Amino acid sequence: MNKGHKLTIITLLSAILLSGCDSKFEIGGMKFDIGGNISTDQNHPSATTFQNGIFENRQTKIKILKTQVGHSNKTQSDGLIVTFWIQNKSKHRIKPSALLNYLNFHQSNSSSNYDLRPVFNVAAALFPTINSDGSSTADASTNIGKATDYNQKYVKPLNAQLLPGKSIKVVRGYELNNKKHPVFATAKKDMHNVDSKSVGTSYKINLQDYKN
């Protein structure tokens, strides 16, 4: 752009600003939009959002479909069982477990706040093979088969490569700190950075809604 063009553009911009009129125009292949309508990040195609348990950015869309509380007699622990729907919006293969790093699950007790770890064995809780005293359940042999099928359908795909444009339903278990206080799911912009800025609105999961 030569000096003459620069002066012309400056003159036009000054005139438009002084007139107070909204305007869209093009000069020498350059497009200008002078007006009161400001584009926000929420309307940008690359925006990262998290609302009502639904996370979305250019790479993926994740929905929290279902939550429930389970207990494992094997580890004597309680867990939050979360069913997700995950879509790969990118042009590359990616593991659903990696995409879930966009979300964090937190829980407080009377004094501290904890990040919940995704280490709870969902199949062991839903299809128990041992009782609380360590003895085998009456349907242990049947439940072994059910647990295997369940893991094959909902758990193993977490670490398989999800193809571009495809979606899948998966389940992940988060070990609870307690069953008294609610769990909050939050989202972040950068799944690789634990200190990444939070986005959207936290999603509250009230454990008191479940009969244990």
Commentary on this structure:
- Residues 41-183 form the DUF5067 domain.
- It comes from Bombilactobacillus folatiphilus.
- Keywords: Plasmid, Signal.
- The protein has 212 residues and is an alpha+beta fold.
- The protein has two domains: 3-34, no CATH class; 48-209, Immunoglobulin-like (Sandwich), CATH 2.60.40.
- The protein contains four helices and eleven strands; from the N terminus they run H-E-E-E-E-E-E-H-E-E-H-H-E-E-E.
- The chain has a five-stranded antiparallel beta sheet.
- It is globular, with a radius of gyration of 25 Å.
- The relative contact order is 0.17.
- Mean pLDDT is 85; it is low at 36-45.
Mean pLDDT: 85
Outline type: globular
The overall number of domains is: 2
Distance between the termini: 71 Å
- Count the DSSP helices: 4
What's the CATH topology name of the largest domain? Answer: Immunoglobulin-like
CATH architecture of the largest domain: Sandwich
Largest sheet properties: 5 strands, antiparallel
- Taken as a percent bin, the fraction of beta residues is 25-35%
The SSE order reads HEEEEEEHEEHHEEE
In which range does the helix fraction lie?
10-25%
As an assembly, this protein is single chain
Observed structural traits:
34% strand; 11 strands; DUF5067 domain-containing protein; 4-stranded antiparallel β-sheet; 4 helices; Immunoglobulin-like; Immunoprotect_excell_Ig-like; 5-stranded antiparallel β-sheet; alpha+beta; 212 residues; signal
